[in-house]
Amino acid sequence: MIDTERTDHVWQEDRGQRSFTPAQMAFRRFVRHKMALVGAGLLIALILYVSAGSLFYSEENANYVDLRARLSPPSWEHPFGTDLAGRDLLARTIYGGQISVIIGLLAVVVSVVVGVLIGAVAGFYGGWVDAVLMRFTEAVFNIPQLFLLIVLAKFFAEGVPTFEILGRTFSGSVVIIIVVIGLTSWMYLARIVRSNFLSLKEQDFVKAARCTGARDLAIITGHILPNTMAPIIVSATLQVANAILAEAYISFLGMGVQPPTATWGNMLNEAYNHLEGAPWMWFFPGTLILVIVLAINFLGDGLRDALDPHSLAQAD
Amino acid sequence: MSPLLDVNDLVVRFSTVAGRVHAVNSASFSVDRGETLGVVGESGCGKSVTVLSVVGLIQQPPGEIVSGEVLYEGRDLLQLSEQEMSQIRGRDIAMVFQDPMSSLNPVLTIGRQISETMTVHLGMSREEARARAIELLDVMGIPEPAERYDDYPHQFSGGMRQRVMIASALACSPSLLIADEPTTALDVTIQAQLIDLVRDLRDRLDMAIIWITHNLAVVAELADRVCVMYAGFIVEEADVFDLFAEPLHPYTLSLLKSVPRIDQVIDEELFAVPGSPPDCLWLPRGCPFVPRCRFAVRRCHQEAPPLREVGPAHRAACWVDVGTGRER
Amino acid sequence: MTRYVIRRLLQAIPLLLLVSLMLFVLASNLGDPLASFGGVRRRLPAKDRERLTKKLGLDKPIPVQYLIWLVGNDWMEIDADGDGVPDERGTRRGVLRGDFGTSFTEKRPAIEIIWQRIPNTLLLMGTSEVVVIVLSLVIGIYSATRQYSVVDSIVTTLSFVGYSMPIFWLALMLIYIFGVNFRRWGLPYFPVVGMYDLEVGRTFGQVLWHMVLPVASLSIVSVASYSRYVRSQMLEVINQDYIRTARAKGLPRQMILFGHALKNAALPLVTIIGMDLPLLLGGSVVTEAIFGWPGMGRLYFKATNKADIPVIMGILVIISVLVVLFQIATDVVYAFLDPRIRYD
């Protein structure tokens, strides 16, 4: 209809522009966020640090006990200093970082699965199913996460023995922590998914799908769920940060991942008693936690603005 | 006598994620004292942006008033500071918006929202303002005004809320009232009541009005003169009777034709202007109405027509004489 | 509005029951309740186990055990000598009356121990909450009104950093800078342990001085996130139609900001703060542990380390109830402040 070929015009200073697909619009919005880009960059840098770092330091380096070098400050040989047992802290932060990140990611997988499941069932079926599930969700939500984490970690930690994957040994507490963090963080997502489902299931495209004989599961997974992806992605991203923090808190208190497996959190636990004397012991792991959580928060904020521009927190 | 408001060559653009939107393209119009100017056009044609620019309520960024002048009683409003502008707003020029529910602050009483202009602009005390506000509510036809003064917007119906909005706009007896589709969100019957009310007030207060609407019937009832806008351009401007009797722009013609008539033969298809309004990210080279115009000639594709006199006090932006179908 | 309050209170009851049920399930699974009898190393002979099982009522069906846990058994007869025949009245008064059993470590009723610590925690958290509210409002409004400016960008970035910080890292940093190094540099320094100096005694000044670092640790993270929330709420409100109307009326900027915008923007903050209590409590565990503040959080930590189940369960129940009540309180405050709900 409109004459698309002719673009120069007496009034017009800029060329006309095509309209964009939703995905392109999302990308454009995302890229406008300098902080989100910074976050993405930081995150990539950190992931590289913990993964590629293991090419430079083997796990042995991380666990190598050298009592002569114990508690030495940062130097060329040990850029982050050494800990109580003379182990190189830089290497330990690399391997500890791997565990912290893995725990964060896997815990989020658990919480997303549980949260989406509960939210979808509650939102889709409504009625008493919804009422019961939501009361349950609220009840769990009302118990402060850290308290629950502490008691669950303490009393169920003996469940899993140390195990080996790919030639590396992991303390069984890793699995427990993953499950426990996952099981105490799904509530927020369940609520979001549920309210999305409640509104989406009334939409015409769902009615249309039913008319063509689609069954419930197909409708949920094929129609409604794809439309809820935006808040799920945003929430999952931010949850990784929370999960990493949760692991840090509980390991700091000494009830999380047990030595010798290092995580950034339990390195801080060891460091606590040497506050004055050896600040490098807590400074580096703590700062790394801060940086990765910060990066994820920047990223999540940008994602939220890109994918879900009508939600509350509008950043600049 | 010079006009109360004189807008010349106003150009306004917006920067959006998708690109730059040409919202208002070289608009020029004027309003005399006590005169009612109707502004008609489809949604998105730039009517609201134009009047918001007049009172300086366009956010810059992402908006940008590129050029033009807005002369109110001889002063160019675009050159005034925010401080000076805020003294004019609410006192000399008042606005009424489309959606009374969202345009009233839900957590403040309506009484307070009417009184505040008076305490700020006219220096009245709380009691004086309250008394006058109650008077206004009474004039607006709101029952038990003294009690309702302390009520909140959600306790009123849509039509009543709009009356409250009008009351707060008229509180300082402005010389110019700008109404941006104030009745669009309301029932037809309520709409009719409000229009009667406004007509009555206008005559009493000798107030000029710019009334924006996409409803031609409202224009016919209220306006002295009419501006027709399309894609950010003013395409026709005339006395209301002349406009309806003899529209000189193809768009106006189509608009009038698309209003269903009671005496219409039943099996005739209702007329709708073919095509859809342009995406203002685009500015085609020639006249913006070309794709939907049945009178378009070659010149229309190449050069956009300026708004010029084509009859006594009647301007249109068209190369073609719609009466004959030939180029002027 | 009274209807609303009553409705909320009634709604809370099934919620509290559900929470108590979940906590009971947790309590029952925290390990062998008979393990604390018979000494640390010996396992009890089977006959004794059987006797104790009957005495403690562990052979009863679960729902009955839950009931007893909740309301005690002093209104019924139990089998005190384990011979299968009920003979005495029980001694437990139940969780609803505050009976959580006797602490394993201190041999006192758990509730007594907990009760002593609650005021300290409330003091810490109450002060933090006030600091959080005031600072968030100030910072949030300030940066909302200066959107896109350099100050706004700095504040926003700092906020991100602030709420990405683990509280304990922040606490350690504060201790290191203000506690340790200030002292080294001869500057007035902040104490880092306990609620007051034992030599000086529990004076107002002492407590205040000792509160500075813990409150700072607890509040900074929350201020960082809430100031952003206030900022975004203000920005959203500023873009509302009614603010446009206020500007169209030519009202002065201050009046629009504080008279029109703020009330709308601050309202959701009330709800958010209500939801914050669980997080603040969690933070208090860590903060109290680090600063040696004698509150409930530290008690919980110690009790967990010593597997002192009565104290653990007591704290869990009390804080869950606190959280639910606090949420009701904030909902009621919100309903009061929002005329759309108050006059309905």
User: Biggest interface in this structure?
Assistant: A-C, 45 and 59 residues
Average predicted confidence as pLDDT of chain C = 82
For CATH, the homologous superfamily of the domain at 5-79 and 208-327 in chain B is named as P-loop containing nucleotide triphosphate hydrolases
Percentage of residues in DSSP E strands of chain B = 15-25%
The largest sheet of chain B, given as strand count, sense and whether it forms a barrel, is: 8 strands, mixed
H-E string of chain C: HHHEEHHHHHHHHH
Please tally the β strands of chain B and state the result.
14
Q: Based on Cα principal axes, name the global outline of chain C.
A: flat
What's the total count of β strands of chain C?
2
- The arrangement of helices and strands of chain B along the chain is EEEHEEHEHHHHHEHEHEEHHHEEEE
- How much helix, percentage-wise, in residues of chain C? over 70%
Number of helices of chain B: 12
Question: Largest sheet of chain C, if any?
Answer: 2 strands, antiparallel
Specify the CATH architecture of the domain at 5-79 and 208-327 in chain B: 3-Layer(aba) Sandwich
